[in-house]
């Protein structure tokens, strides 16, 4: 087993490396196609950020596309230069929020129940994406693949010797080679690529800020910063806690660097960390392995990546994503014993999931309710009513 300081590169780390692939891969390709971005540059830079993050944190702290921003780019077909300008804009904002201590203040202000609610809302969103978009993608054959993948993961989820996601990925590769793989297309696109340099002007940065950065900031504060810090504390209680300032700084630096090499805006994410952890990742090794995959694809298969991706069955990625989402949702279990916190977490999660700009609204509403005496009394009454109803039903 190769070991670099506290990084490990074993079977479990390799399995954990695929824990977030169901979210990242499709978003990257969709953004490239919608915005006309340079495919090799996006993959090489995205992979490089993964490796740097793994080395800095030495835990499965992955890099993800900015989800709210990706959704706006895909649906609005926003031009590539504006997308890259948005990366500079949000990186600058996060840098100053970290530098002047605003993120630390938010951490102290926003209660744990609200963070759990944001995680719950994100988990529900990912579950819905997996069940509506990925798993039905290949109709009857896709459902069969999804069912087989589901059984494999259930049977091997905590197995240290035979990591579940490795078998799912291997099954997907076998399926792709058998039914979809076109070696001629892949060979025709094999050539060495390097990232393209890009220098956005003030107009691109301003447009990116207005169109993309502003809608993204609430989700980033909730999921990329606060929820990620909470998840790291939950999953690695024996390690020195990571400060939100450090997470904010690495978030900002990634977005100040990536666009200069034509890379997409990116972030950390609670779901990504949970995904790596769920399938075996315990050190930064899983993130380094994951990033290396993207660098190899970008360097040698840049212009054929869309074809490579299309060969892998989406239903299997959907099942991996589904289990990542379940892991996020179950983090809410520590609020169950406190009825007030449990109700706040549920309410926050449903707002985050169900409304436009839901993460911002959920943070404000959830935090306001938590500190409001009137709201506390109302929640207490609701809790007592629920308890009496349960006792009546049991009788």
Structure description:
By secondary structure, this protein is mainly α. The protein has one domain (2-334). It is 74% helix and 3% strand. The chain has 19 helices and 4 strands. It has helices spanning 11-16, 21-35, 39-57, 67-76, 80-99, 102-109, 112-134, 139-156, 164-179, 183-188, 202-235, 244-257, 270-278, 285-301, 305-311, 314-330, 339-354, 358-371, 373-394, and strands at residues 2-4, 7-9, 64-65, 266-267. It has a two-stranded antiparallel ribbon. A hairpin with a 2-residue loop joins strand 1 and strand 2. Helix 7 packs across helix 11. The radius of gyration is 21 Å and the shape is globular. The model has no long low-confidence stretch (mean pLDDT 82). This is Membrane protein. It comes from Leptospira wolbachii serovar Codice str. CDC. Pfam families: MFS_MOT1.
């Amino acid at each position: 087993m190769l070991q670099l300081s506290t990084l490990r590169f074993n079977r479990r780390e390799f399995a954990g490396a695929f824990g977030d692939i169901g979210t990242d891969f499709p978003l990257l390709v969709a953004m490239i196609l919608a915005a006309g971005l340079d495919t090799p540059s996006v993959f090489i830079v995205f992979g490089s950020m993964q490796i740097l993050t793994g080395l800095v944190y030495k835990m499965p702290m992955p890099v993800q596309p900015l989800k709210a921003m990706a959704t706006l780019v895909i649906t609005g077909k926003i031009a590539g230069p504006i997308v890259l300008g948005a990366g500079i804009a949000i990186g600058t904002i996060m840098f100053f929020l970290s530098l002047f201590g605003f993120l630390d203040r938010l951490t102290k202000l926003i209660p744990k129940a609200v963070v759990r609610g944001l995680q719950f809302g994100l988990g529900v969103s990912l579950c819905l994406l997996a069940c509506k978009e990925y798993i039905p993608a290949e109709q009857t054959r896709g459902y069969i693949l999804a069912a087989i993948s589901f059984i494999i993961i259930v049977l091997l989820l905590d197995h240290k010797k035979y990591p579940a996601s490795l078998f799912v990925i291997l099954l997907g590769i076998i399926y792709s080679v058998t039914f979809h793989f076109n070696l001629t297309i892949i060979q025709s696109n094999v050539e060495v690529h390097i990232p393209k340099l890009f220098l956005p002007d003030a107009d691109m940065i301003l447009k990116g800020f207005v169109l993309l950065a502003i809608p993204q900031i609430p989700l980033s504060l909730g999921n990329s910063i606060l929820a990620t810090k909470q998840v790291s504390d939950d999953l690695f209680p024996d390690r020195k806690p990571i400060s939100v300032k450090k997470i904010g700084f690495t978030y900002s630096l990634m977005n100040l660097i990536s666009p200069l090499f034509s890379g997409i805006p990116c972030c950390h994410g609670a779901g990504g960390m949970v995904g790596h952890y769920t399938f075996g990742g315990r050190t930064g090794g899983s993130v380094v392995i994951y990033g290396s995959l993207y660098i190899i694809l970008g360097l040698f298969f840049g212009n054929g990546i869309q074809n490579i991706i299309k060969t892998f069955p989406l239903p299997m990625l959907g099942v991996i994503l589904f289990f990542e989402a379940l892991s996020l949702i179950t983090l809410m279990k520590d609020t169950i014993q406190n009825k007030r916190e449990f109700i706040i977490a549920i309410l926050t999660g449903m707002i985050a999931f169900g409304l436009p700009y839901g993460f911002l609204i959920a943070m404000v509403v959830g935090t306001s309710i938590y500190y409001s005496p009137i709201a506390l009394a109302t929640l207490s009454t609701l809790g007592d009513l629920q308890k009496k109803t349960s006792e009546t039903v049991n009788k």
